[in-house]
From TrEMBL:
InterPro entries: RNA_pol_sigma-70-like, RNA_pol_sigma-70_dom, RNA_pol_sigma70_r2, RNA_pol_sigma70_r4_t2, RNA_pol_sigma_r2, RNA_pol_sigma_r3/r4-like, WH-like_DNA-bd_sf. GO terms for biological process: DNA-templated transcription initiation. One of its GO terms (molecular function) is DNA binding. Belongs to the sigma-70 factor family. ECF subfamily. Residues 9-75 form the RNA polymerase sigma-70 region domain. This is RNA polymerase sigma factor. It comes from Candidatus Gemmiger excrementavium. Pfam families: Sigma70_r2 (PF04542), Sigma70_r4_2 (PF08281). Keywords: DNA-binding, Sigma factor, Transcription, Transcription regulation. SUPFAM superfamilies: Sigma2 domain of RNA polymerase sigma factors (SSF88946), Sigma3 and sigma4 domains of RNA polymerase sigma factors (SSF88659). Residues 108-156 form the RNA polymerase sigma factor 70 region 4 type domain.
Length: 167
């Protein structure tokens, strides 16, 4: 399959990729940086594109991998002791002020995680640290799909419980 020129790809997919990266990062400036890196990497990899998938799918895969790499680079800066970052990653919230309420919510999240199935807790914690499902699965000796399901269910329980409790 012959790919269109990079300029054409940029014109066609820039807005969709940017929205996707904004959704992942919750930061317009970071999304813009990752978008640039996505197209730079695509340019370098154009000769290796085999046509196994749609061009858009290929570009979104590159964007996702770049985002995951950025998470891994800052993985050490997010710990369970950082209430804002932990809640942001666990619950998908943009930001929380460093308040007593945030600390109470984090304590409740820890408590709820402690009550969960150990594998579900580990999946949530590893995802919060930026690990991919592909990295988590062999580490916990489960399939990638199992990791996804465990995280989804754990997040749902966390969100429902915290909502009921007014967090």
């Amino acid at each position: 399959m012959k790919l269109p020129e990079l300029e054409t790809l940029y014109t066609l997919y820039r807005a969709d990729l940017y929205r996707y990266l904004c959704h992942l990062t919750h930061d317009a400036a970071e999304a813009e940086d990752l978008l640039s890196e996505t197209f730079l990497r695509a340019l370098r990899r154009l000769p290796t594109f085999r046509g196994d998938c749609a061009v858009k799918t290929w570009l979104f895969g590159i964007a996702r991998n770049i985002w995951l790499e950025s998470l891994r680079k800052r993985r050490d800066t997010v710990s369970l002791d950082d209430p804002e970052a932990m809640l942001e990653r666990c619950l998908g919230r943009d930001t929380l002020a460093d308040t007593t309420d945030a600390r109470r919510a984090l304590a409740r999240v820890r408590e709820l995680l402690g009550e969960m199935n150990p594998k579900a807790r580990q999946v949530v914690e590893l995802r919060a640290q930026g690990y991919s499902y592909a990295e988590i699965a062999p580490r916990l000796q489960i399939t990638e799909n199992s990791a996804r399901v465990l995280e989804h269910r754990a997040r749902a329980v966390l969100q429902q419980t915290l909502q009921k409790e007014g967090y």
